[in-house]
């Protein structure tokens, strides 16, 4: 069993996290067969960097990250914050405060070892501590959709052919488990 430390990011983690996002987004794009969409890939990396800086600049008030570290190396991330534009565009206007869970990454060398579940369980506790009772999670990546469907069931919202033919986008509404 790996010795995993979960903690909040610090300013000294920025460079390593930026590099981690680069690795993870590129790996995701390659595994999804969309590695040729370089502009989209760069935008995705920039969004992750922006989210991290929002966390650090607001001390977790606007966006809240947890990182997983093993042997002094960042091997996973998870965050929550305001829901993205795709989620918000699908919800009624009456839903004003909507939380999104995202930036869930586990380094390719460490996947399928329970690290994602550990991050998720820890984030449930953090959300509960901050009075958050539910969140939304979305994905346009087929591999991630498979994992989220196993964990959360069928999505609340299914956007058929959202990205292109047979490239759907799925959105789940999830209640934070009470332990």
UniProtKB/TrEMBL annotation:
| Ranges of residues in domain N-acetyltransferase | 4-177
Kindly state which keywords UniProt assigns to this record, in alphabetical order.
Transferase
The family database entries (InterPro entries) matched by this protein are listed as: Acyl_CoA_acyltransferase, GNAT_dom
Gene3D superfamilies assigned to the protein according to its UniProt record, in alphabetical order: 3.40.630.30
Query: PROSITE patterns this protein is in?
Result: GNAT
For the keyword Ribosomal protein, the answer is no
Q: Which domain of life is it from?
A: Bacteria
Which terms in the Gene Ontology molecular function aspect does this entry carry? acyltransferase activity, transferring groups other than amino-acyl groups
Pfam families (UniProt xref): Acetyltransf_1 (PF00583)
Q: Has UniProt tagged this entry with the keyword Transferase?
A: yes
Q: What is this protein called?
A: GNAT family N-acetyltransferase
Organism for this UniProt entry: Robertmurraya kyonggiensis
